[in-house]
Write the structure tokens for this entry.
Amino acid sequence: MIPGSGTQGGTGTIGSSSGAGGSSSAATGSGGIDISSGSGATGGVNPDDACAVDSAEPELVTLPVDIIMVLDNSGSMEDELESVEQNINVNFADILTQSGVDYRLILISRHRVQDRCEDGDGCEEASTSICVSAPLSALPSCPFGIPGTTDRFYQYSVKIESEDSFDRILETYNSSSDDKYNLSTMGWSEWLRPGAKKVFLEMTDDNEDMSAEAFMQALSSRSTEHFGTPEAPNYIFHSIIGVQEKNPVGEAYLPSELPVNMPCTGNGNTVTTTGLTYQDLSIRTGGLRFPICEFPSYDTVFRRIAEDVVVTSSLKCDFAVPAPPQGKTLELDKVAVNYTPGAGGNPQQFGQALLPTDCQANAFYIEGDRIYLCPDACTSIQNDPQSRVDVLFTCDSTIIVR
């Protein structure tokens, strides 16, 4: 959101201080800035002492989201895949639909074309494949023909082995050669939408040969537009893997929690790996981790992931310069930005960078009649959805001295 008329006083003029563009009497020397030496580096400005104030608080927004679900088709996954089939409509798609979020589910896994059975040709394959029916899919029931593509659902039917899901994700991204039903012409990438939030959901009882770092590098090389960079990934990776159950069962491990080294044991499972590679990727991207052994609790797991997808809190990172109080002139080198953490604590004052190229983690800059938080500062506040940002016009310069 762009802050509204949260100013104090009436109309006036904005001073022509050169602090917004390239030079200022408060700035000396050349080269990079040293934010630690600037007057705006620490502490906070009391809004009561400001000449004018504009503020922003988080607002709840729903973002379009593309969910890429990757399911292991190896022989040990029979119970898990059956549970996914039972829950994918009721406890996942329904929640997303009812929320009003604009979502699309892209499934990368082998499609099931016959009933599960105990013996006979194709029985083993059927037991470790998945069929998605209506209303998410266009299939009236399962099994019934080829995957049922809709505006909400797409499936790239390819077998995912125990330790190769990263390879398969990358290989099929812009290639349709492995798509059993030829539903894509250029891989599953053609089903991604520009501007949509990207969320991966991996489900396996094994580990991955490729490292998380290598996968992030390779995925970024496919498309920085969709996936960002390894240093700033533009996606979340949730994983349902062999981690030990929490109490209560079905509770997620959060990104702030360390990797889990004990495997889950529930429901007769004999999982031998905790999927440390997947854990690493989930932690790096802000994803959740769930125990795969608790397939009777997948309703809870799917609901939790769906809820995580639906709503996010967001703060815009740019602000209009407000009108000054009546009879006063605002000088742009006397702007301060206060960031108040959502968890409490003292406000932090961001320093002012003269140019966008001078940006640092706790700084902002001004161009024209708008105030912009530097990229790292923007990321910090957007990762703190209960935070508050105040743009204050003070009596003292907060230009960072170079």
In short: The chain is about 20% helix and 20% strand. Residues 13-59+315-393 form one domain. The longest helix spans residues 298-310. The two ends are 32 Å apart (CA to CA).
